[in-house]
Structure formats: structure tokens, C-alpha cells
UniProtKB/TrEMBL annotation:
<feature type="domain" description="ABC transmembrane type-1">
    <location>
        <begin position="72"/>
        <end position="263"/>
    </location>
</feature>
<feature type="transmembrane region" description="Helical">
    <location>
        <begin position="109"/>
        <end position="131"/>
    </location>
</feature>
<dbReference type="InterPro" id="IPR035906">
    <property type="entry name" value="MetI-like_sf"/>
</dbReference>
<keyword id="KW-1133">Transmembrane helix</keyword>
<feature type="transmembrane region" description="Helical">
    <location>
        <begin position="12"/>
        <end position="35"/>
    </location>
</feature>
<keyword id="KW-0762">Sugar transport</keyword>
<feature type="transmembrane region" description="Helical">
    <location>
        <begin position="242"/>
        <end position="263"/>
    </location>
</feature>
<dbReference type="GO" id="GO:0042956">
    <property type="term" value="P:maltodextrin transmembrane transport"/>
</dbReference>
<dbReference type="InterPro" id="IPR050901">
    <property type="entry name" value="BP-dep_ABC_trans_perm"/>
</dbReference>
<comment type="similarity">
    <text>Belongs to the binding-protein-dependent transport system permease family. MalFG subfamily.</text>
</comment>
<keyword id="KW-0813">Transport</keyword>
<dbReference type="Pfam" id="PF00528">
    <property type="entry name" value="BPD_transp_1"/>
</dbReference>
<keyword id="KW-1003">Cell membrane</keyword>
<keyword id="KW-0812">Transmembrane</keyword>
<protein>
    <submittedName>
        <fullName>Arabinogalactan oligomer/maltooligosaccharide transport system permease protein</fullName>
    </submittedName>
</protein>
<feature type="transmembrane region" description="Helical">
    <location>
        <begin position="195"/>
        <end position="218"/>
    </location>
</feature>
<feature type="transmembrane region" description="Helical">
    <location>
        <begin position="137"/>
        <end position="158"/>
    </location>
</feature>
Amino acid sequence: MTTSKRKFSMGNLFCYLGLIIIGIACVYPALWVVMSSFRPGNALYSETLIPSSFTLEHYSDLFEKYPFGQWFINTFKVAFFTMIFSTILVTITGYVFSRFRFKGRKKMMLGLLVIGMFPGFMSMIAVYILLMQLQLLNTHISLILVYSAGAPMGYLYVKGYFDTIPQSLVDAAKIDGAGHLTVFRRIILPLSKPMLVYLALTSFSGGFVDFIFANMVLSTPEKQTLAVGLFRIVQGRSATEFTMFAAGCVLVAVPLTLLFIFLQRYLVEGLMAGADKG
């Protein structure tokens, strides 16, 4: 075995070992939560990962003691409409920056990038006061508006993807008399399926799992989302509700996990293609 091959093999070995360690660090806590959701009793601590006996009592208690079904409907509604509006807004923004040339274009792009670098919670007080003046507190519309309004700041991946579409296709359509709306609807969107799936999936998951802003806006149990409701289960309590909380976490993770599994091909294609050009 030559020196280069030996170095290559050792490099692969360290890479695989690192991946195994990272995999264990990621999977073990999730597996512990799943197993805890089936463990009898309410204790946080257990000597073994796999419980000696299994029970579905904690799952049934979620629906009997709390409006978990309503929380799920609320969360799905917020995430669905956030996905629709966010995808539309960020797609239009990316198309405008990709295909149009106008005064102040680069400054606007730079401004959106700089604003997007600041954490969202810095503006929460101002947004809260604005929603209070508009009488939108404790409503799902407020969550949808806030989540969707910030979506255009993530235009860069969309613009990069649109930049990969040949300009000759657009020019040919314009020669045939197509306007910007027709080009966008008939040419750009059909060729952007991976990017659209990526945008829809990330927008949906963002609205589905958000806690900080939803906890600040929503107050009544019938309006709460899953993240807020699960937090309220253990808020101000000891660890006696941990196994029920673990059952709720499993139910929250199932739909998102299935979405990522079925759409992972489009997710990877959208990420890689959007990074080809700036």
C-alpha cells in the first residue's frame, strides 16, 4: 500500500468515526424521548433506555386532559398558510432580483441580507405593540402575517436558482409575445419544482415548530399551537409530566419527519441548485 493510499484510508477512517459519533449524539436523545413516551409512570430518569414494559397511556392522556387535537389543528393551519404566503412572496422576490435590472437593486439586495442577519426576536416588542394596536393579539392571523412577512429576506437561494435557468428560454417566450407574468408562470415555475418544494417544506416546518413568538402572542388554550401547548403542560410543574411531554414531542415530530423523508430528494436538489450562482 502506497503512502497516498494509506493517508486516504486513514482520512476515510477518521471521517467515518466522526460521522458515527455525530450520529450517536443526534439519535440517542431522540431515541430516549421516544422510549420515554412508552414508559409507564411519569419519571424523567430511567436506568435503561428501553423500558421493561410499554404503554400508550401517555398518548391517550394528551387528548383526554388537554385540547391536543385542537392544538394540532391550530398548528397545521398556521403552518399551511405560512407555507403558501411565504413561498409566493419569496419566489416573487427572487424572480424580481434575478430577471429585472433597476436602480437601487444591489442596495436593496444588500439591505435585505443585512437585515436578515439580525435575530428575529430583536423586533418582537415592536411587532407585539403593532399587533396590539391592530387588535390581532391571540389570533392565528398575526402568526401567519409575521412569519410570511419575513420570508422575502431569504430570497438569495431563490435568486441563485433562477439565475441557473437559461435566459434564452425567457427571450424565446418574449419573442412569441409572452409577458413577465406568463414567463414567470409558464416557464420559471415549472422549471423550479425542487426550489419550490424546498421553500414550501422549510416554510411549513418553521411555522409548525415555532415557539418564542407564538408563546408571546397566543394566550388562551383553544388558540395555542403544539409548541406552546406542550410548554404549558410542564410549565410551573415538576418532572411528573415528562413522559406525557415526550409523547407529545413524538406526535409533533411524526408529520415533519415523514415530510422530510418523502421530499428529501427535492430538498437536496433545491439547496444545491440554489447555491450554484449568486
